[in-house]
Structure formats: structure tokens, C-alpha cells
Write a structure and sequence with these properties.
It is built from nine helices and 28 strands. With about 375 residues, the protein is an alpha/beta fold. A hairpin with a 3-residue loop joins strand 2 and strand 3. It is globular and about 65 Å long.
Length: about 375
């Protein structure tokens, strides 16, 4: 496929969960990182020239991806490149995706690809990129927006909302809590490479840096950009707030969500970290959970997702929780509606209760 890939790693902040890591390296689903979905969408479609934009706290991301071997990539010019730092802004502050693209013109110009697929790591999906590119080429338009129905509800603010009539866009809005009937952009685009390079130069020269507002909606309104919409009919999980991350992780307990996200179009690859099998104690009780390898389980766990090498002590009770790698829940502790980041410790007998709408988050490495 004659396509270059671009991944934006951290346009969204999830508070304590992304305090010391990028959005792209946020753990998800027991053994994955969010970037795995974007990388797999690209590489399973044969894309081998991939650039990852990130502006801070990217050590864990680079450690996870390494040389790119698990995704069939090679680290180097014309293959996988980490574009960090990307910005040479006079204000030393992030002003938008167009500025990041402008700072990486050498990367964009390298190679003879006709198209660029741009993906944001905050939205998880299993997209057949071959079909998107084919639909884009057939449309003859400058840019195709991959969008999802059923997300807009009048209260959730989406980056880019689109309304269609007979397959054509009749309205477009940015940072808008669009009502039902609008499609939500998945921050997943396929664009003509030469057109994008020219438009980035023109926009930045006029102090315009916002991709959705200035390039897509602005260009559509002025008639300088033709926009196609590809409606994704599979699962799309928008992890743009802590509450959404919590709900979308526990959504994996639904087998239909798991099947669509991890195998509807292609497998999702991640860094291999083999561990010993889980140990289930004599009194361990598990009900509707996802459990990764290496766990030591002696208490009760219900409706929860456990990452690798989690320890649940005797008589501990864990319900509706997300517990990341190498965390320990002590004997007799009780947790409900809690997210434990990596390497956290809950002392014996401690009690932590959040709510379904606002789960408690315990930072990486903390003891409570």
C-alpha cells in the first residue's frame, strides 16, 4: 500500500494516568498500550513508513515500541521514526497538529507515498485501512475523515462533528457537544500527501495551527478542502477522560467488544512480555474478569481487569476495578470503582470506594 502513517501520541491528558507518560503509552486491556491499536491498524495494512509525534514524557513509549519489531517495523529513516521533540514554536507551547507537521517536513517529503494516514492514540479501534484508503481514492477528495455514529449525544464534546445528508456533509463543527444524528470524528484521517504538505505550509504561514478547525472545517467552509467521510461500523472507544478510560476498559468484559476490537479486521500486536501462569489460591473467587498472566490471586475479584503480575491477598475484595501491572492489594483490603496504576500497593485492611461515574485513581508507585 502506498501510504505513510502518522500517529499523534499525546493530545489529551488523563490527569494522574498521563502525568508521567504519553496518552499513547497508557496501559489498556490487561497487556496492551493504547499505541498498539494505531500501530496495528497501520502495519496490518502494509504501512512501513510510520512517524510518531509526541512532545513530552515519551520515555515509556519509546521503551515499549523499541525497534518496532513486534509490528514488523524497523527503526530508522524511511521506516519507524520518533519525531521528538517536534515543535520549534516561538512561544515554546503546543499550538496544534499543523505546527507539528510543519516541523517535520523532511519526514513528510521522504518517500514516494501518495497518501498519509493520520491516527490519534486517544481513540481505540480496529479499522480496515485498506477499505478506508480505497474509499478515499474513489471519492476523489482531499481528505477522508473516519467517523463513528452513536457517540454524539448532546453532552459529550467531540473534536470534530459532522452531519451527513445523502452521503454528503451538510454541517461541520469543532469542539462541539453535537446532538444525536451527527457523526464524531475518530481523529483518524486519510489525506493526499502533496495536498497536505501544501496546506500545512499555507496554514502555518497565516498563524493557523488547528487541524480540525483550520484545515478541515476552515477549508471546507472556504471551498479549499474537499472532505469525504468514511463511517466506521465497528467499535470505537474514545479514551479522552479518566471516566471514559475506566468505562472503556471494563467494556472489554463484553465478548462482542473484545472480538471487534482485537480481531474483527486484524490482530492487535504488542510488546511480548512472557510471564508464568496465574496462581489461583484455594479460596480465590473470580466472577466476570479479564486476568493477565503472572497474577497471584487469593481473594475475591468481580467485574474487573487485572494486568500482569497483580497480587490479590487473602480475604481481599475487588469489584469494578482496573489494576495495572505489579500492583498489590493487601490481605482484607476492599476496593470498588478504583484504578490502580502500575506498581501501587494497597495496605492490608485498607478500604477504597469510588463511584461508577468518578473512579478513584491511585498514582503509579504509591502506597495507600
Amino acid at each position: 500500500m502506498n501510504v505513510m502513517g502518522i500517529i499523534f501520541a499525546n493530545d489529551t491528558s488523563l490527569g494522574a494516568l498521563t502525568e508521567k507518560r504519553t496518552m499513547a503509552s497508557l496501559p489498556y486491556g490487561g497487556r496492551y498500550r493504547q499505541v498498539d491499536f494505531a500501530l496495528s491498524n497501520l502495519t496490518c495494512a502494509g504501512v512501513r513508513h510510520v512517524g510518531i509525534f509526541t512532545r513530552h514524557s515519551y520515555q515509556s513509549l519509546m521503551h515499549h515500541i523499541g525497534s518496532g519489531e513486534e509490528w514488523g517495523l524497523e527503526l530508522g529513516e524511511g521506516a519507524l521514526e520518533f519525531l521528538t521533540p517536534y515543535s520549534h514554536s516561538a512561544t515554546d507551547s503546543y499550538r496544534g497538529k499543523l505546527e507539528s507537521l510543519a516541523s517535520a517536513m523532511d519526514f513528510l517529503r521522504y518517500g514516494n507515498e501518495d497518501y498519509i494516514a493520520i491516527i490519534d492514540a486517544a481513540v481505540l479501534s480496529n479499522v480496515d485501512l485498506d477499505k478506508v484508503v480505497a474509499a478515499h481514492a474513489a471519492s476523489g477528495k482531499d481528505i477522508t475523515v473516519v467517523a463513528k455514529a452513536g457517540i454524539c449525544n448532546g453532552s459529550k464534546q467531540v473534536d470534530l462533528a459532522l452531519k451527513l445528508e445523502k452521503g454528503e456533509i451538510i454541517d461541520m463543527a469543532v469542539d462541539y457537544a453535537a446532538p444525536e444524528g451527527y457523526l464524531a470524528s475518530m481523529d483518524f484521517f486519510v489525506v493526499n500527501k502533496k495536498w497536505l504538505i501544501e496546506q500545512v505550509k499555507e496554514c502555518v504561514a497565516r498563524n493557523l495551527y488547528h487541524m480540525d478547525r483550520n484545515l478541515i472545517m476552515g477549508g471546507w467552509n472556504k471551498g479549499t478542502a474537499t472532505v469525504n467521510v468514511y463511517e466506521h461500523d465497528g467499535v470505537a472507544l474514545f479514551n479522552e477522560t479518566v471516566d471514559e478510560y475506566y468505562r472503556n476498559t471494563l467494556a472489554l468484559l463484553d465478548k462482542d467488544v473484545r472480538h471487534d476490537l482485537f480481531g474483527a479486521n486484524h490482530p492487535v500486536y504488542t510488546k511480548v512480555r512472557d510471564r508464568v501462569p496465574c496462581y489461583y489460591g484455594e479460596d480465590a473467587q473470580l466472577d466476570d474478569c479479564l486476568v493477565a498472566d503472572g497474577c497471584m490471586l487469593e481473594g475475591k475479584v468481580k467485574n474487573s481487569v487485572l494486568f500482569r503480575q497483580v497480587t490479590i491477598g487473602e480475604d481481599a475484595e475487588v469489584e469494578d476495578c482496573i489494576i495495572m501491572n505489579d500492583s498489590v492489594v493487601g490481605k482484607g483490603a476492599k476496593l470498588k470503582y478504583v484504578i490502580l496504576d502500575k506498581e501501587t500497593t494497597v495496605t492490608p485492611g485498607a478500604k477504597l470506594y469510588g463511584t461508577k461515574e468518578h473512579p478513584i485513581v491511585i498514582k503509579k508507585g504509591e502506597t495507600v
